[in-house]
């Protein structure tokens, strides 16, 4: 009997709801990009920022302008269905429940950002001005800002040397994806190797059973042969 994936999809649904409630609240109460509310002094803030790229503000700058966003949005949609199918497949294979919870968290984060990029350009009219259509060009709302460092990076650093750096601002969906991936990396030995000892034990039990059956069969054959010989031996 395979493990039902439905309870894991409930976690996915819960994370999507939490993510969207936070984003709508930030949009409603902070209103404009750049507005912020300190939570723990200057260390942790709610800072309203629109992100047209991926998690933590990463973008696809190598693609032609106008196509980068729609490619990213379509990629998110494909990834969403792929992760969902993977979750169902793992459940059918009776994978470790911890792995299934992590995949469910990753799926919830992926769908949360898909909602933004697909619909927010229409609902909140936050698509970039030069977008060919508001559909699939919505900007993701980010808000969690741990202000650990802001400033110019040293020139001697490769690639990023001499550029301005600020700690990435992220949202609840990003955090769900990040936590799911980190937990999988930490416990990958347990998540992916758990079934191996079990299979080995089952194989050993089967081999032992077969061996015992063979011994019993040999013993029975020997007794039958001995009986036949004693019966066929002439009496003195």
TrEMBL record:
Q: Where is this region: Disordered?
A: 196-236
Residues crossing the lipid bilayer are 70-91, 98-123, 169-187
**Keyword terms of this UniProt record:** Aspartyl protease, Cell membrane, Hydrolase, Lipoprotein, Membrane, Protease, Transmembrane, Transmembrane helix
How far does the signal peptide extend, from start to end residue?
none
Give the matching InterPro entries. Peptidase_A8
Enumerate the subcellular locations listed in this protein's record, separating them with semicolons.
Answer: Cell membrane
Q: Where is the composition biased (Basic and acidic residues)?
A: 196-214
Catalysis: reaction(s): Release of signal peptides from bacterial membrane prolipoproteins. Hydrolyzes -Xaa-Yaa-Zaa-|-(S,diacylglyceryl)Cys-, in which Xaa is hydrophobic (preferably Leu), and Yaa (Ala or Ser) and Zaa (Gly or Ala) have small, neutral side chains
Record-stated family:
Belongs to the peptidase A8 family.
Question: What is this protein's record name?
Answer: Lipoprotein signal peptidase
Task: Tell me which HAMAP family the record gives.
Answer: LspA
State the function annotated in the UniProt record.
Answer: This protein specifically catalyzes the removal of signal peptides from prolipoproteins.
């Amino acid at each position: 009997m395979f493990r039902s994936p439905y309870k894991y999809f409930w976690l996915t649904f819960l994370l999507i709801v939490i993510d969207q409630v936070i984003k709508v609240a930030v949009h409603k109460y902070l209103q404009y990009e750049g507005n912020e509310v300190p939570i723990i002094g200057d260390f942790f803030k709610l800072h309203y920022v629109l992100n047209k790229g991926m998690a933590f503000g990463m973008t696809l700058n190598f693609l032609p302008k106008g196509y980068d966003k729609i490619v990213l949005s379509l990629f998110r949609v494909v990834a969403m269905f792929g992760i969902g199918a993977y979750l169902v497949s793992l459940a059918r294979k009776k994978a470790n429940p911890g792995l299934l919870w992590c995949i469910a968290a990753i799926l919830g984060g992926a769908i949360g950002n898909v909602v933004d990029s697909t619909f927010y350009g229409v609902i909140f009219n936050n698509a970039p001005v030069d977008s060919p259509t508001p559909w699939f060009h919505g900007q993701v709302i980010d808000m969690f800002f741990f202000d650990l460092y802001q400033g110019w990076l040293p020139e001697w650093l490769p690639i990023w040397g001499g550029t301005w750096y600020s700690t990435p601002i992220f949202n609840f969906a990003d955090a769900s994806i990040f936590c799911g991936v980190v937990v999988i990396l930490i416990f990958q030995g347990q998540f992916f190797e758990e079934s191996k000892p079990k299979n080995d034990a089952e194989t050993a039990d089967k081999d032992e059973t077969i061996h015992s059956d063979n011994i019993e069969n040999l013993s029975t054959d020997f007794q039958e042969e001995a009986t036949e010989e004693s019966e066929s031996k002439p009496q003195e």
